[in-house]
Write a structure and sequence with these properties.
This protein is an all-alpha fold and 37 residues long. The protein has one helix at residues 11-30. The chain is elongated and about 35 Å long. The two termini are 13 Å apart. InterPro entries: Cys_resp_CS_actino. This is Leader peptide.
Amino acid sequence: MVVDDVSEKTPGMLLVARLHVDLCRLASAMCPRPAAA
């Protein structure tokens, strides 16, 4: 869920969100299993 209008978020929050996505992708790559949304 990437929102183009990030004026409400601080750069720090945006960075944390991007890191979170990267970590989720990395975890999925290491442990392939149906994503539990």
